[in-house]
Amino acid sequence: MSGLRPGEIVLEHATRSFPLDQDRRRTLKELFVRRGRARPRVHALRDVTLHVEPGEAVGMVGRNGAGKTSTLRCLAGIVPLDSGRAECGGRTVSLLELGAGFGPDFSGRENIYLSGALHGFTRDEIEERIDAIVEFSELGEFIDVPVRAYSAGMYLRLGFAIVSHLDADVLLIDEILAVGDESFQRKCLRRIGEQMERGATLVLVSHDPTAIERICERVVVLDQGSVAFDGPVAEGLLFYHRMLGTESGGSRALRPAERRGAIEVTELELRDADGRRRHMFRTGEPLTVAMAVRAVEPQERALLALEVRDPRGETCFRTDTSLGALAGEARVTFQVPALALLGGDYDVAVGAYGHDAPQGGFLDRVARFSVAQTSGGEGIVDLRGRWEVLVRDPA
Question: Is residue 54 predicted with pLDDT exceeding 90?
Answer without folding.
Answer: yes
